[in-house]
Amino acid sequence: MGITAIYFLRKYVFHNRKNKGIKEIYTTLETRKDHLPVFKIPSHFINGFLTVVFGGSTGIEVSTVVSTATIGNQIYKRRLMPLAFKKACICAGVVAGVTVLFGSAIGGWLFAIEVIAKKFQKKVVVSATVSALIAFFFIQYVGSPYLIPMSAAVWQWKALPYMMLLAVLAGLLATYFTQIVIFCKHWFSGISNNFLRVNLGALAVGILIVGFPSLYGDSYHGLVDMLRTFTFSGIHLPGSLPLTLAALFLLKPIAASLTLGAGGDGGVFAPSIVAGAFLGILFAYLCNTYLGFEFLVVNFALIGAAATLAAAIHGPMTAIFLICSLAPNGYQLLFPLGMAAFSAYMLSKKICSYNVYSYQG
């Protein structure tokens, strides 16, 4: 229902103009005369809402980022700021959106600098800082609940090698995710019949959700349920539950890719976090069950989430501080999160470079 509604909205309300995620921001920044049109604000908000609330397996992060970037772009376009401040205005909008979503002003600031601007520029840094401060005071006033209500705990040095091994697996998971997204978008673009494309994607995602309800929407609810189950049950779990968890971290990228390919609105933010956290939970469970460790499941869930997100968006600093803000006391894990995020990012970057080299060769 959600993807079908988006299709008709795109056709009759937004005049067949498609949403292309963060790529739209990059395209706008590359050309001074190119702008994010006003319709991107309601289009991404409405389509992102319809996608997630009806079960589309993505998140609202990318929809929000493009919408807030459009607000910044429109302020620039309407000459409310000097002409040299286009990137600064867009980044200010991005900072505000990410800060409110994750409750992390530092994470929002880093995302704008590291992922959107991709370099330090004085105007961008100043505008992003002002935006982060305003957004910070806003969330202090309205409140910003943790996405993961379980508190992170003090980590031990003996766990670090296993955290690094998890980071390697997370880097591979992010690469797998990226390739699945590219494949699905290419495959769906080859279907000329709109009715077939929309309904084929909707049915495929629906079937996956029926089999695995934790894939519904952004899956944060499913992640919290799994964390509680594996934390309080210890190793005394039904044999099928670890297999279900393994299926979830492999199927979440597929469900997200099918959602996006069929016309849903969103990106890889939430799916990367959730898939990586599922991987971390399973990794900790296997180590505790078969190797005799007593690793804290929530710590490894956050490590997996940070590493996968860092590799997926190529923003390790952003991933570190955003994941620190997901759970109470998350900053206790700052060092292992940093090690894992940069390790996964470097691995993913190396694999991507190798693929490009092989293709060119």
TrEMBL record:
It is a multi-pass membrane protein. Signal peptide: none annotated. Keywords: Chloride, Chloride channel, Ion channel, Ion transport, Membrane, Transmembrane, Transmembrane helix, Transport. The chain crosses the membrane at residues 88-112, 124-148, 160-183, 195-216, 237-256, 268-286, 293-313, 319-347. Coiled coil: none annotated. It holds the Pfam family Voltage_CLC. It is found in: Membrane. This is Chloride channel protein. It comes from Sphingobacterium griseoflavum.
